[in-house]
Amino acid sequence: MIPAKKQAEILTSGCVSVIEREELLEKIETGKKLRIKFGADPSAPDIHLGHIVVLDKLRQFGELGHRIVFIIGDFTARIGDPSGRQKTRPMLSKEEVIENARTYQRQVFKILSRDYTDVVYNSEWLEKMTFEDVLKLSSNYTVSRMLERDDFKERFKKNIPIRTSEFLYPLLQGYDSVRVNADVEIGGSDQIFNLLVGRTLQQKFGKAPQVVMTLPLLVGTDGQRKMSKSYGNYISVDDSPEEIYGKAMSVSDELMLEWAEIFSFIDAEELKKLPPRNAKALLARSIVKYLHSEKDASEAEQHFEKVVVKKDIPDEIPEIAVREKTLSVVDLVVRAAFVRSRSRAKALINQNAVAIDGKPVKNFAQKIEIKDEMVLKVGKRKFVKIRRR
């Protein structure tokens, strides 16, 4: 059994803030299994590398004998978390949220164990609230308190609209803590206001306040904004080993070092001793190994060297069958399932990111004569072989 002080030291390492550290130690010293809350809104069908920063901390709690309560915010996703936003998120329909949530449980258990994790949906209690319940809940906070949030304050100063529903979001997230009896809630550093609302509401409802722990935000692959599904600058935990490796190799040297400092499974000091190219390869291998396996990491590296560095075609690539004798290049890219829309396919073609048999396609209106075994390439790493039916 690891002593309480040592547990607290392990669990608070890498945190941006812990409110309050003394309370965490006291909770651990009781000897009971703590209930550790983390919530994620399925605003898109992927858990990404940015979530791994928090999930890895949850894994540490679980391996030390505590209980993880993973809340899928299928109700709150319909409002949209305003944290860090300079404009209102588009409201999602119930059907969109359900569709986005389908992969969440499978993805989260790539990092966490089912042995110490409970998965719950906050619609279980939020959908049952009456208007009177909502009024009572909202009476716990004033508008002036809400405007203390940096993002709300900034939008208010700039006369950018703030919906009343956005004020409700932190209250609903906080109420989740009341319902699941959270001892600790973990989130990104941009979540500090929402997490503290949970702490306040627990006290209002006569419960012991949760400890709030925040972790650093991971900057996305664009090197500018936090990693987000909404910004498209993310690496999904469901990406193939080759995709993960390739995306990691594409980040800047500065971002590589920042990621290394944040991820507990990467030896940042060892990485700093290496030349940038080798350091980035170590980073990419470490991420693939964490999400997949050592074998996958090795094969992904070999794939990258062959396809990206030497610009060869992989030995094994997927195939699609095409009946038509000719097909527009836009339709061909969509048919290959590289993108979901024709507009995205056109954008890739305009970016010179599409090639057929090694020749770039420069006109999205171009008709392609379909030949057996022709190879379509999109971006640096996506290939498909076309077969005539």
Structure explained in plain terms:
With 389 residues, the chain is α/β, with parallel strands linked by helices. It is built from 18 helices and 13 strands. It has helices at 4-12, 21-29, 49-63, 94-101, 104-108, 123-126, 131-138, 143-146, 150-157, 164-180, 192-204, 241-249, 253-262, 268-272, 276-291, 294-309, 329-335, 342-350; strands spanning 17-19, 35-40, 67-72, 117-121, 184-188, 211-215, 319-322, 326-328, 354-356, 359-360, 367-369, 374-378, 382-388. A 6-stranded mixed beta sheet has the order 1-6-5-2-3-4, with helices on both faces. A 5-stranded mixed beta sheet has the order 7-13-12-9-10, with no helix packed on it. α11 (192-204) links the parallel β5 and β6. The longest helix is centred in the middle third of the chain and has 17 residues, at 164-180. The mean pLDDT is 85.
Total helices: the number is 18
Low-confidence stretches: none
Give the mean pLDDT: 85
Task: Give me the Rg, rounded.
Answer: 24 Å
Shape: globular
- What distance separates the N and C termini? 63 Å
* Strand arrangement, major sheet: 1-6-5-2-3-4
Structural class: alpha/beta
Percent helix, as a range, is 40-55%
Strand content: 5-15%
What does the main sheet amount to? 6 strands, mixed
The total count of strands amounts to: 13
Give a brief outline of the structure:
The protein has 389 residues and is α/β, with parallel strands linked by helices.
Q: Topology, pairings included?
A:
Elements (H helix, E strand, L loop, with lengths): L3 H9 L4 E3 L1 H9 L5 E6 L8 H15 L3 E6 L21 H8 L2 H5 L8 E5 L1 H4 L4 H8 L4 H4 L3 H8 L6 H17 L3 E5 L3 H13 L6 E5 L25 H9 L3 H10 L5 H5 L3 H16 L2 H16 L9 E4 L3 E3 H7 L6 H9 L3 E3 L2 E2 L6 E3 L4 E5 L3 E7 L1
Parallel strand pairs: 2-3, 2-5, 3-4, 5-6, 7-13
Antiparallel strand pairs: 1-6, 8-11, 9-10, 9-12, 12-13
